């Protein structure tokens, strides 16, 4: 438990250091009489490549700049600084927020975004600039997955340190939120992880006691698995040595869902360890429809 808490604390300090460095660089350029400029890797599709070493999609060497010398860059530059400020407050105070909440909270700071997508894009810019995921800034999506199975976890979030729970404690599964993804793995009898696209099948598997019959941890992805869920699946594989099997619909979208868990996504090519390269897409395959009628 203590080891996980230390790791989380070290990660938080690294995030704060990166955010402070961004702000300090702006002040430094202003003190020198220069227009503040920031450079970050380009997220354009032509700069996204598959890396056989990490076995995921990553960004190439192309970079883009944003300078306040260009009048068209002033607003997005200021918005980026605001997102960094908001992220710093969340991380320092150990509070959480959502993508939607960041968009609405900006109005209290008199910082306007055209819509939530613009706000989301600026958060992604901050990720690309710092190398940390929005979840490290304590910003999470509204979508949540769930997990069910024999795994004891110990919480590390404020107010719950030292408390443990078994993930069979709720018949509908336990939501995979910030408290679960930052937890310490304590004990499990599980031998495999089954990531399931649809919530209905996840519920049926619990009813049929698949977790018990096959010593499995069941994860409901809720369609395309959120990034925190993909990161959690990676932890289960790496820290507990559990093989991961993916069950999706037998259609192109189901194949895409499985591929994102295995190889990562283009949208998150600027981040690492959100994929599980050794995960296996178990079906449903088109041939299953024929073979099993």
Textual characterization of the structure:
The chain has 293 residues and is α/β, with parallel strands linked by helices. It has 2 domains: 139 residues, Arc Repressor Mutant, subunit A (Orthogonal Bundle), CATH 1.10.10; 147 residues, Dna Topoisomerase Vi A Subunit, Chain: A, domain 2 (3-Layer(aba) Sandwich), CATH 3.40.1360. Helices cover 42% and strands 20% of the residues. It is built from 10 helices and 15 strands. Helix 9 links the parallel strand 14 and strand 15. Helix 2 packs across helix 4. The chain is globular. The termini are far apart. The mean pLDDT is 93.
Helix content: 40-55%
Number of domains: 2
Whole-number radius of gyration?
A: 21 Å
Low-confidence stretches: none
CATH class of the largest domain: Alpha Beta
The outline comes out as globular
Q: Strand pairing plus helix content: what structural class?
A: alpha/beta
Classify the beta-strand content into a percent band.
15-25%
Q: Any idea what the CATH architecture of the largest domain is?
A: 3-Layer(aba) Sandwich
Number of strands: 15
